[in-house]
Amino acid sequence: MTLTKMKKNEILMLIIALALFLISYNLDEKVNLLFKNAKFAFLDVILGIITNFGIVVVIMAAMPSIMLYKKNKKAVYLIWSAFVVSVILAFIIKLIALRQRPTEAFAYPFVNIINYSFPSMHAMAVFSLLPILIKYIPKQRHFWAWFAFLVALSRIYFGFHFLSDVVFGAFAGYFIGTYLLELHNKGKLWKK
Q: Contact, 181 vs 134, CB < 8 A?
């Protein structure tokens, strides 16, 4: 049985993602130290707003849902499906990995699971939405990509995550979004 071109591309992307994750894992301490020593007032303000999970949900899930609701309700279901799947999967992986954050940032009462570093739930969530938003709202594709990148960067900048946490979260999220989009396009998620 021969692999289709699409399957070959998916395998290549998986190999590239794994390689980048391994490289980022080896750079974790150096990148953490770099960001610990490099703080800028302008970035503190901008990234401080962008790193807020509520802002992330509003910009990457709620606003696009409002934009698409009348035109394509199933795209809205897809957005929220990707978001929920990525958050749940991030929680499960955090429980398995139990990796401590680079710094003691904060403590959440009742849900100490969030206190673990690996993977970055922020990165996983925004990157799971990226392929869907690019497909259904393509005019703003540069905005979606830059916003997702800045969310991921903010997690490293403030010391909430190691570089490898964010790299893994971004790739895992992107694969989740792509997979759900593929299932949606094949009509396998819900009835047409």
A: no
How far is the C-alpha of 63 from the C-alpha of 51, rounded, in Å? 17
DSSP string, 158-181: TTSS-HHHHHHHHHHHHHHHHHHH
Q: What is the DSSP string of the chain?
A: -PPPHHHHHHHHHHHHHHHHHHHHHHHHHHHHHHHHH---HHHHHHHHHHT-HHHHHIIIIIHHHHHHTTT-HHHHHHHHHHHHHHHHHHHHHHHHH-PBPSS-----SS-GGGGB-SS-HHHHHHHHHHHHHHHHSGGGHHHHHHHHHHHHHHHHHTTSS-HHHHHHHHHHHHHHHHHHHHHHHTT-SS--
* Radius of gyration from C-alpha coordinates of the chain: 17
Whether the ω angle into residue 119 lies within 30 degrees of 0, i.e. cis, is yes
Distances, alpha carbon 16 to alpha carbons 105, 120, 164, in Å: 31, 19, 14
Q: What is the pTM of this model?
A: 0.85
* Per-residue pLDDT reduced to its tens digit, 95-151: 888 888 887 655 554 555 467 888 999 999 999 999 999 999 999 999 999 999 999
Q: Are 134 and 144 in contact (CB under 8 A)?
A: yes
pLDDT tens-digit series, residues 36-50: 878 788 888 888 888
